[in-house]
Amino acid sequence: MMTSTMIRDYSGEVYVTWFNQPYLKKQLTLGTEVTLKGKAVYKYNKLQFTSPKLLTKKDLEYMKDKSVLPIYPMSKGGVSQKSIRLSIAMAIEHAGDEIRDFFCQESSKTNII
Prior knowledge:
4 helices
């Protein structure tokens, strides 16, 4: 299964192809803002990406002001790092003030945390 689209902004257009990711068709609706991460090549007289990482506005908001992104152990079921990070971020946001910092204030002053 191949998913292809053309993405356009003020600077021009780029043609993008993903393999075995049919769910992207639902995410890539007209007007959706995305960021692509990958290697762009000029081929067949047009700029192209093949299987780039797709970052949505929500992904970018989560990563904003984060200099370090956690890497979680992968499950055998194939859950992606992106899914795990977003799920944890949503859980933390939902829990709000119910989450307590288990490091004592004294320890955090003397150690870099």
